[in-house]
């Protein structure tokens, strides 16, 4: 019975095979880095648009009263935030991830 060693198998791998393996490894590193950085990014209430203290207090009050839609409308009206950013900001407030 013939026993195959890993070294014997790697010897027969073509050159382009190593290139494919390297590409897969680089892709995995990029994806993992992107996921880690995305999870550690903490949105703040005053991220790109200026939010005054009164607006911030009202947003916190609306979120604590479970009125997220009203909080998003308030942010959009007073700061001009896009809908997606207002939603992300209100979600961050509701989960306690603001500074």
From TrEMBL:
InterPro entries assigned: Ribosomal_bL12_C/ClpS-like (IPR014719)
Domain of life, source organism: Bacteria
Residue ranges of the TM segments: 16-37
Gene3D superfamilies per the UniProt record, alphabetical: 3.30.1390.10
Sorted UniProt keywords: Membrane, Transmembrane, Transmembrane helix
Name of the protein described by the UniProt record: Ribosomal protein L7/L12 C-terminal domain-containing protein
Phylogenetic classification of the source organism: Bacteria, Bacillati, Actinomycetota, Actinomycetes, Mycobacteriales
């Amino acid at each position: 019975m013939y026993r195959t060693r890993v070294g014997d198998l790697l010897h027969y791998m073509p050159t382009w095979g190593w290139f494919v393996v390297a590409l897969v490894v680089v892709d995995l590193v990029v994806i993992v880095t992107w996921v880690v950085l995305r999870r550690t990014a903490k949105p703040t209430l005053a991220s790109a648009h200026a939010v005054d203290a009164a607006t911030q207090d009202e947003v916190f009050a609306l979120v604590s009263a479970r009125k997220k839609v009203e909080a998003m409308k308030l942010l959009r009206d007073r700061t001009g935030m896009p809908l997606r950013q207002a939603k992300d900001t209100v979600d961050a407030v509701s989960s306690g991830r603001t500074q």
